[in-house]
Amino acid sequence: MDNSNDFLFDDESSFFDDEELREKVKFCKEIINDGTVLTNMELLEDTVHTCLEYGFVDDGLFLADAILEVAPYNSDVWQLRGIFLNNKFEFEEAYFSFEKAMTFNPNDSETLLNKAITEENLGLFDDAFDSLEKTLLTDSENEDAYFSLGGLCEKKGDFAKAVQYFEKAVEIDKEFAEAWYELGICYDTLEDFSKSLFAYDKYLEIEPYNHIAWFNRGIVLIEMEEFDKAANSYELALAIKEKFPSAWFNLGVSYLSMKKYPLAAREFKKVVDDDPQDEAAWFHLGKVFEEMNDFSSALAAYNKAVEIDDEYYEAYLSRGFCFKNLGKSKEALHDFDKAMFILGKIEKDFETGFSKDEFFAALNKFKKIVESNSDDFNAWIILGKLYWKSGEFEKSLEAYNNCLRIDSGNANAYYGKAKVNFLLHNVEEAIRILKLAFNLDPSTKQKFDSEYPEVKVSKLFKKLIDEHSAHK
Fold first, then answer.
1. Does the structure show a pLDDT above 60 at 2?
2. Secondary structure of residue 277 in the 3-state scheme
3. Which of 17, 46, 282, 307 gets the most CB atoms within 10 Å of its CB?
4. pLDDT per position as a tens digit, 50-69
5. Which residues 6+ apart lie within 8 Å of 470 measured at CB?
6. CA atoms in the 13 A half-sphere facing the CB of 10
7. CA distance 341 to 359
8. Which ranges in 207-328 belong to alpha helices (H)?
9. What is the CATH number of the domain that holds 266?
10. Sign of CA dihedral 433, 438, 440, 443
């Protein structure tokens, strides 16, 4: 056959359609069958790269394997083979390929970056961190390495550290859209809302048609109580994606906060028309009608909320106030009692334990409650416990901080915050907070002794208790 170089090209802007690439792959397979791989190595390697670029994963992997049979020391092809295997979710085999590539080229930054991706997918987070730090030893301005390090810190819940890496990434590449987006998320989580807004704005300068980014930006603006700007963000999100129930809901919240009640009602009605089982939307629709003094319509909406979720304690409370305004004292008292019973039952469930479905239902319920009323102390304290039980310690800490924002002298909130800090290994901070809890309410000391019987043998806890006693 004629093993010509017709398929070789030097123009970096050359473009293949799928059929042309299939022909090129077919030609390369004929070369392999003819046993002339070595004499056509440049063409084969070029085709492997093109397969990667155009997503021809199986063909690229086949050609890479053929090259490695005759050229097993080709680190570049070993790396490409690993990338193909990553794309096929065959992470263990991909890891082997990257290890082989590093045997022949141990300091190649691209190999280290891709190896880190595989390690992360295998759950080897410490190894991934090491691989990325090695990348920076040889390529200190590698923005992708900083971005990946930020992502690892984000997964561990260390948002402050993640920010440092993402900031470094955008310092190197000011157009690094994904890094700006993650900075928006991290700063929002850290409650540095002005920086979060700045990051989302930078992202949207680069990617203006991302409806999720406009939505997230709106959330930040609601936190900043700039409801008119938040509404504008949600409207832009909806201009990009017309059917977006979460944006309808949050736009309704923005209008409700601005006392634009007819507009708020319009948005919540869109949500319940799309999903008649959305109890939070019915509840908020009830709030709108209540603000408009249309208590009959408010009652109908609250009725739907508790029909869908018969433990929606906020809906019972609000419905009770509607009954009270309508002069129906008996019905109002019944609803107030029901709300208090639910709250007490939820507290008791922390002792008896949730089923998995009940646990996540409770978590979602109380997330929705604080989204609609950020000053609901009871909801925040329950969220703190729920996040603690689920292992989401940073979110648990955030919940307890909100409790203390609302009631700065609450011993239970301090106690919960101390427990989270112990689990996050912030020992000195945990000790300081626990002592505050003890001073505010001595009964928390008994609770501590009951929950942590190891205090009798732990030098750290003994030191804590001794210091506490010394200050009495």
1. no
2. coil
3. 282
4. 888 888 889 888 888 888 88
5. none
6. 0
7. 18
8. 211-223, 227-240, 245-257, 261-274, 279-291, 295-308, 313-325
9. 1.25.40.10
10. positive
In the chain, % of residues over pLDDT 90: 36
Alpha carbon 382 to chain centroid, angstroms: 21
pLDDT band of residue 454 (cuts 50, 70, 90) is: very low
Range of the domain at 271: 209-275
Is residue 59 domain-resident? no
Per-residue pLDDT band for 211 (boundaries 50, 70, 90) equals very high
Within a domain: residue 37?
no
Number of structural domains found in the chain: 1
Question: What value does the mean pLDDT of the chain take?
Answer: 84
Please give the Cα distance from 82 to 74 (Å, whole number).
13
**DSSP notation for 149-214:** HHHHHHHTT-HHHHHHHHHHHHHH-TT-HHHHHHHHHHHHHTT-HHHHHHHHHHHHHH-TT-HHHH
- Alpha-carbon gap, residue 18 to 28, rounded angstroms: 15
CA distances to 91, 152, 249, 379, 416 from 374, rounded to whole Å, are 43, 30, 16, 9, 19
Distance CA 7, CA 43 (A): 7
| Structural domain contains residue 262 | yes
Tens of pLDDT, residue by residue over 284-310, are 999 999 999 999 999 999 999 999 998
251: in domain: yes
Helix (H/G/I), strand (E/B), else coil: 260: coil
Helices (H), 391-440: 393-406, 411-423, 427-440
Residues 379-401 pLDDT 10s: 898 888 888 877 888 899 999 99
Region 111-120: what's the mean pLDDT? 87
Start-to-end C-alpha separation, the chain: 95
The angle subtended at Cα 100 by Cα 94 and Cα 102, nearest 5°, is: 105
pLDDT of residue 9: 41
pLDDT, position 1: 40
Other Cβ atoms closer than 10 A to 329? 11
231, two tokens: 């509404």
Q: How confident is the model at residue 247, as a pLDDT?
A: 94
Closest CA to 284 of 310, 248, 238, 231: 248
Give the integer Cα–Cα distance in Å for 24 and 11.
16
Written as six digits, the tokens of 362 are: 């409770």
The 10 Å Cβ neighbour count of residue 27 is 18
Q: How far apart are CA 201 and CA 220, in angstroms?
A: 11
For 153-166, write each residue's pLDDT tens digit.
988 888 999 999 99
What number of other Cβ atoms are within 10 A of residue 91's Cβ? Answer: 19
Question: Residue 360 contacts by C-beta under 8 Å, 6 or more apart in sequence?
Answer: none
